């Protein structure tokens, strides 16, 4: 306190709850405040997703300070209504706004409607082994259960929630930040202030209660601008859990708003429109793109099946059971179960008993879930979820409305890997880990993964070349370049990598950085490339000339190869995820024609598509157009 009063601090971090303390108010009167910066400013609004009454006191600081300090407010999740509240409730007079935009193009959004969530998570993490990810769960119990199953399956996972001690939470957080754990399974208690750049996926095991929370948590993926996935696992039970939380944690004045936000969240889970447009439009009406080509809706095709008869049977059963039971009991009746409770309740005497015995339980569960999602069945009750027929459900019962269920077919697999030397990448990661442990800083603060991948492609051999690597500035080049260059050279030598097309090979590396960082030589084992890696060097050389601004003819002339070979090199690089300006190879008009024919013909052969198109459209154009839309090709 004395040092604050003597102006020893340039920056003072304070929780708004401090403004309830008279002692702290006295302190504010005795120090010179030049600027008030309010983080998470949406908390001032009752329309916001995280209202904190103490934020309403912030507007008093200016009067307490007496010298009219500048005020600023920051938030990543403010709707237009919340933005107006921030301006008015913090008294931002004569303000100006800076809006950086809500769109994060590298994030792929997806909603997966599923009942077996744990198995999905286990399969996904296995497919993405070694990648950094967050799995958000709604309760502590689910968090611990999911984490335990991941550990049992052999994954490096830690848990984080408010039920753990401070030491346990800090250890979990540090293990995740320092790459000692790949996965952190957490409640929403985790994430504030976390800026780990290389998080490749965020999975929400349960649906959050509002879009603001979801977008903030999902947005922790891909802060290095590399492709990342944001997946929400949805089941109707999530609605029940969130209703329970609202009823037991919201004040009477905010319940109406919380339920409205929950409806928006459910609508997001059920929409078949572009998920990115849905999210961004929630915050900003100016997003006009209808197809982002990078979300579960835009990257899938659907097939509709009429299930009106099946729906009528399910709704009739619910009605005859007086709308007093949950889905498991309803399904048991429809299946004709002979269990004791069904007989005691005389449900075996109902006309709907055994009416759908030809269906397995999982299929019936999926049908009921779909009917809940589409609004034909409502879930009521706090402790025990009970199925009720909605007004639209009664229309179906009366034969006035038909029901169709959509089956989704994905157009592509998960995120395409960026083309890079994976062996060298692992060597550089090991070196980075060693340095981070010596300096006691998270590995991504040395270099993020994107920077290491760029090194494996460009193979810098001196500090000047290192400065051309993504994410390397003067400070980091001076501090770290020599030790990384040493590893790169070692890898080149062991694998006899051809460097004749590199323009500069000046050896400026020395041992001073190794000494400063406390490293010894040969800290990781250099791995030889497999035979399957041969040929990547020549494609990378073509690609490097392309990104320097040269066209196909110029590259072919410089390399003494045919233009078709260069085109094949570049399409291979595009397939592997390297950035290509597709308009260099196919015009928008031709692209549209190609995609239209592909949609009609399908399959994985190019010849039928070529034959259906005008003669002036080349195979090269077809390849680039299909790759742009992530269509697998032969």
Any key phrases for this structure?
634 residues; alpha/beta; Rossmann fold; Arc Repressor Mutant, subunit A; two-stranded parallel ribbon; 28 helices; 12 strands; 10% strand
Overview of this structure, please?
The chain is of the alpha/beta class and 634 residues long. The chain has 5 domains: 2-89, Rossmann fold, CATH 3.40.50; 107-298, P-loop containing nucleotide triphosphate hydrolases (Rossmann fold, 3-Layer(aba) Sandwich); 303-409, Arc Repressor Mutant, subunit A, CATH 1.10.10; 422-533, DNA polymerase, domain 1, CATH 1.10.150; 537-628, Arc Repressor Mutant, subunit A. 45% of the residues lie in helices and 10% in strands. The protein is built from 28 helices and 12 strands. The protein has helices at 2-5, 22-29, 60-65, 80-89, 117-127, 140-152, 166-177, 211-218, 237-249, 252-270, 275-283, 308-320, 327-335, 340-344, 361-373, 391-397, 422-439, 443-446, 449-458, 463-466, 474-495, 512-516, 536-547, 552-559, 563-575, 588-601, 607-612, 619-628, and strands spanning 35-38, 70-73, 107-113, 132-136, 157-160, 183-186, 199-204, 228-234, 300-306, 377-380, 386-389, 404-410. A 6-stranded parallel sheet has the order 3-8-7-4-6-5, with helices on both faces. A two-stranded parallel sheet has the order 1-2. Strands 9-12 form a two-stranded antiparallel sheet. Helix 7 (166-177) links the parallel strand 5 and strand 6 (183-186). Helix 17 (422-439) crosses helix 21 and helix 26 (588-601) crosses helix 28 (619-628). The longest helix has 22 residues, at 474-495. It is globular. The termini are far apart. The model is unreliable at 409-418, 503-512 and 521-536 (pLDDT under 50).
């Amino acid at each position: 306190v004395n040092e604050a009063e003597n102006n020893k601090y340039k920056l003072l971090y304070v929780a708004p709850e401090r403004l309830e303390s008279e002692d702290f108010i006295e302190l504010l009167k005795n120090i010179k405040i030049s600027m008030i910066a309010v983080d998470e400013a949406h908390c001032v609004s009752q329309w916001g997703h995280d209202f904190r009454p103490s934020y309403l006191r912030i507007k008093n600081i200016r009067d307490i300070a007496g010298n009219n300090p500048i005020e600023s407010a920051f938030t990543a999740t403010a709707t237009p209504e919340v933005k107006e509240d921030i301006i008015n409730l913090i008294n931002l007079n004569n303000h100006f706004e800076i809006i950086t935009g809500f769109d994060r193009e590298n994030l792929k959004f997806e909603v997966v409607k599923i009942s077996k969530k744990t198995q999905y998570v286990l399969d996904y993490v296995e497919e993405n082994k070694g990648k950094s990810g967050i799995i958000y769960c709604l309760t502590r119990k689910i968090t611990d259960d999911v984490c335990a199953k991941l550990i049992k399956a052999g994954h490096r996972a830690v848990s984080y929630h408010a039920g753990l001690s401070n030491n346990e939470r800090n250890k979990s957080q540090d293990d995740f930040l320092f790459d000692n754990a790949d996965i952190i399974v957490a409640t929403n208690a985790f994430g504030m202030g976390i800026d780990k750049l290389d998080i490749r996926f965020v999975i929400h095991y349960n649906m959050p209660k509002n879009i603001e929370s979801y977008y903030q948590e999902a947005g922790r993926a891909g802060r290095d601008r590399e492709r990342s996935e944001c997946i929400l696992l949805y089941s109707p039970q999530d609605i029940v859990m969130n209703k329970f939380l609202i009823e037991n944690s919201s004040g009477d004045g905010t319940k109406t708003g919380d339920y409205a936000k929950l409806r928006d969240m459910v609508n997001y889970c059920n929409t078949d429109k572009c998920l990115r447009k849905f999210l961004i439009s929630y915050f900003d009406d100016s997003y006009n793109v209808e197809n982002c080509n990078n979300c579960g809706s835009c990257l899938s095709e659907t097939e509709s099946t009429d299930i009106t008869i099946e729906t009528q049977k399910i709704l009739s059963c619910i009605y005859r059971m007086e709308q007093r039971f949950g889905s498991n009991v309803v399904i048991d009746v429809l299946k004709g179960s002979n269990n004791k409770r069904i007989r005691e309740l005389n449900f075996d005497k109902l006309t709907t008993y055994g009416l759908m015995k030809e269906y397995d339980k999982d299929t019936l569960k999926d049908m009921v879930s779909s009917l809940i999602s589409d609004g034909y069945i409502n879930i009521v009750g706090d402790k025990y979820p009970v199925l009720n027929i909605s007004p639209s459900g009664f229309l179906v019962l009366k034969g006035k409305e038909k029901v169709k269920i959509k089956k989704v077919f994905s157009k592509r697999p998960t995120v395409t890997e960026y083309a890079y030397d994976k062996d060298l990448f692992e060597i550089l990661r090991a070196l980075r880990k060693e340095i981070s442990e010596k300096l006691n800083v998270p590995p991504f603060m040395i270099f993020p993964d994107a920077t290491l991948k760029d090194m494996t492609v460009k193979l810098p051999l001196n500090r000047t070349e290192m400065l051309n690597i993504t994410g390397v500035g003067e400070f980091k080049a001076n501090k770290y370049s020599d030790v990384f260059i040493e590893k790169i050279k070692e890898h080149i030598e062991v694998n006899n990598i051809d460097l004749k097309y590199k323009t500069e090979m000046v050896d400026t590396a020395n041992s001073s950085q190794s000494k400063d960082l406390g490293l010894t030589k040969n800290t990781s084992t250099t791995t030889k490339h497999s035979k399957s890696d041969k040929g990547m060097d020549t494609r990378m050389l073509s690609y490097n000339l392309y990104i320097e601004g040269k066209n196909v003819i110029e590259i072919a002339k410089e390399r003494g190869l045919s233009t078709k070979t260069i085109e094949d090199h570049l399409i291979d690089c595009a397939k592997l995820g390297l950035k290509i300006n597709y308009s260099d190879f196919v015009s928008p008009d031709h692209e549209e024609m190609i995609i239209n024919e592909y949609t009609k013909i399908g399959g994985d052969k190019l010849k039928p598509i070529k034959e259906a198109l005008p003669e002036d459209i080349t195979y090269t154009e077809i390849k680039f157009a299909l790759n742009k839309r992530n269509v697998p090709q032969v």
